[in-house]
Design goal:
This protein is an all-alpha fold. It contains 12 helices and 2 strands; from the N terminus they run H-H-H-E-E-H-H-H-H-H-H-H-H-H. The chain has a two-stranded antiparallel sheet with strand order 1-2. It comes from Catellatospora citrea.
């Protein structure tokens, strides 16, 4: 196991990202002991306080176990980690992990209809939804349309008035945004369906929860199925 030196000095966030990258890549396995703070600081070219703070952050995130007077060991992030590590899983080494992308779209498909139904039932701040749909319609850039669609769903989550779903949305958005360009082809089948967004906005605004849930599922299902098909093609092409 080797660590390249970090160019920017004494930044705990950089240390956190570097060690997490090794964990996600499988270079650090569950139960494995990390090098000492001194050894990590020397390997990464940063100060020991920066390493210590980064390891404390990782411990709070459930990624490592820090024992007083003992070694810091790697945890199984799939059992102990949170949604905040999704961006690292989606683009490990800068390449899109299609299986993780699929799981994110599957999570959207499960959560989106519930949130849309709550937004209709609670009839929150929905006045901005028609303008959000118009913004999707008038943006001709595929990546821009994805951003406009995210803005639409942000309004829906706000109208649902659920802290838990808001935090889930934040994490999924943080994971999804770095992959906008990579997913633009797959997502076109969804973000180009302006009439579907308009119908969903109307159902939410009118307080029709059953219709809102149905329309949200139909809208989100298109991209999910397109990605599943793309993954099947990729797996079929492998030797």
């Amino acid at each position: 196991m080797t660590f390249a030196k970090i160019e920017r000095r004494s930044l705990p966030g950089e240390v956190y990202d570097r060690v997490l990258g090794e964990l996600v890549a499988g270079s650090l396995t569950p139960g494995q002991a990390l090098p000492s703070e001194r050894a990590l600081a020397e390997a990464l070219g940063v100060s020991r306080p920066a390493v210590r703070e980064a390891l404390q952050r990782m411990a709070h995130a459930g990624l490592v176990k820090v024992r007083q007077g003992g070694a810091t060991t790697v945890s199984d992030f799939r059992r102990t980690g949170g949604l905040d590590i999704l961006p690292h899983l989606l683009l490990p080494g800068g390449d899109l992990d299609v299986a993780v992308a699929r799981s994110i779209l599957e999570a959207r498909l499960a959560i989106g209809p519930v949130v849309a139904g709550l937004a209709a039932e609670r009839h929150g701040h929905t006045a901005a939804l028609p303008a959000a749909v118009t913004a999707i319609e008038t943006d001709t850039d595929p990546v821009g349309r994805q951003r406009r669609a995210l803005a639409f769903w942000e309004l829906v989550v706000d109208a649902a008035d659920s802290v838990a779903f808001r935090l889930m949305f934040n994490s999924l958005r943080a994971a999804y945004e770095p992959a906008l360009v990579a997913l633009s082809t797959v997502m076109a089948d969804e973000v180009d369906r302006v009439d579907a967004y308009r119908a969903l906005a109307a159902a939410i605004t009118e307080g029709d929860a059953d219709t809102a849930r149905r329309l949200a599922h139909d809208l989100l299902n298109h991209a999910t199925q397109a990605l599943l098909h793309a993954i099947d093609l990729l797996e079929g092409a492998r030797p």
